[in-house]
UniProtKB/TrEMBL annotation:
Keywords: Metal-binding, Oxidoreductase
Lineage: Bacteria, Pseudomonadati, Pseudomonadota, Betaproteobacteria, Nitrosomonadales
Residue ranges of domain Plastocyanin-like in the record: 89-191, 224-324
Claim: Oxidoreductase is one of the keywords in the record: yes
UniProt keyword Metal-binding present: yes
Transmembrane segments: none
InterPro entries with a match to the protein in the record: Cu-oxidase-like_N (IPR011707), Cu-oxidase_C (IPR011706), Cu-oxidase_fam (IPR045087), Cu_oxidase_CS (IPR033138), Cu_oxidase_Cu_BS (IPR002355), Cupredoxin (IPR008972)
Name of the featured protein: Multicopper oxidase
Gene Ontology terms for molecular function: copper ion binding; oxidoreductase activity
Signal sequence extent: none
Length: 327
């Protein structure tokens, strides 16, 4: 072996080692405001699942006052972070890798006390966002910085995919708080599987989608006010779930709500893997979180819905589109 050949092999080997090294632990900062606004459960004013049918009683009133978490680029809270259309009512997606620290600078722009309570990550009492502590109830107009540590117990387990999902939501414990709309997700990636220090998506997938299945109770259990939603939309009004044939897709599925929020999430024309088990229906209960993988095998515009019959009838459906190729 000559010198130049040996040097080339050594260089390639060094590059391979560099790209396989885990990322250094970092502090990930996010600026999030709670804001009060109007929310339209069906912006098209139409039943986009069955165009020959109406929105039924669930379309009698489409627009309600909601509260949302809105992400901003910095401490001025002037430039919102853009979100894909499919995220709907969800707050900003907070990302980290195992070993990181998440700092969320929370500003309450609303008219009531609110908080941010995370699942899965490590925190002290003041950053719990619930049940006492400085961050448990942030008054209107005030701010608080939550510090959450992404330790190994917040990351994917031995049988999990390379990224998993956790919920965050307000937890002041007012009776109607779950219906306000204040909910978002945290995505944690294994330390050695992130694409780069700035792009924390896993290397082994092409796309990630998140779906919140929840019945918002707007009118004291009146049927017309029970909005059976995916990310806050009904009857196909959630758009943007678009992927390509044979790409690697990870779905992060979450649920919140009450005892009626027992959902069976179903994709037409596709199966998913959950801990090595092949299925096309995933069960979610209130405050549950699960991440599953798929590789779309059939092009088309397919139904994505809850398979509980009452929930389907009430509009807990949308569509996911598979293009024939990735060109």
């Amino acid at each position: 072996m000559n010198f130049h050949h040996a040097s080339r092999i050594l260089a390639i080997f060094s590059i391979a080692i560099f790209f396989s090294l885990p990322l250094e632990a970092a502090t990930r900062e996010y600026w999030v405001a709670a804001e009060k606004l109007s929310w339209d459960y069906a912006p098209s004013k139409k039943n986009l699942i069955n165009p020959d049918e109406t929105l039924g009683v669930w379309g009698q009133t489409r627009i309600y006052t909601k509260y949302r978490y809105i992400g901003y680029t910095d401490s001025t809270y002037t430039q919102p972070v853009s979100q894909p259309e499919w995220m709907g009512i969800l707050g900003p997606q907070l990302r980290a890798v195992v070993g990181d620290t998440i700092k969320v600078h929370f500003l309450n722009k609303t008219d009531r006390a609110l908080s941010m309570h995370p699942h899965g990550v490590l925190y002290d009492k003041d950053s719990e966002g619930a049940d006492g502590g400085k961050g448990a109830s942030i008054p209107p107009g005030e701010s608080y910085t939550y510090t959450w540590v992404v330790d190994k117990d917040a990351g994917p387990g031995p049988d999990d995919p390379s990224s998993i999902v956790w919920l965050y939501h307000s937890h002041v414990m007012a009776e109607e708080e779950m219906n306000l709309g204040l909910v978002g997700t945290i995505i944690v990636t294994q330390k050695d599987r992130a694409r780069s220090a700035s792009d924390l998506k896993p290397q082994d997938i092409d796309q990630e989608f998140t779906a919140l299945f929840m019945i918002f109770n707007e009118e004291n259990d009146e049927e017309s006010g029970l909005k059976h939603t995916i990310n806050g939309r009904i009857f196909g009004n959630l758009k943007g779930y678009e992927t390509n044939l044979n790409e690697r897709v990870r779905w992060h599925l979450v649920a919140l709500g009450n005892e009626v929020d027992n959902h069976t999430v179903h994709w037409h024309a596709q199966t998913v893997l959950k801990h090595g088990h092949r299925t096309d229906v995933i069960e979610v209960l209130p405050a549950s979180m699960v991440s599953v993988d798929m590789t779309p095998r059939s092009p088309g515009n397919w139904l994505f819905h809850c398979h509980v019959n009452d929930h389907m009838i009430a509009g807990m459906s949308t569509r996911w589109h598979v293009n024939t190729n990735s060109d």
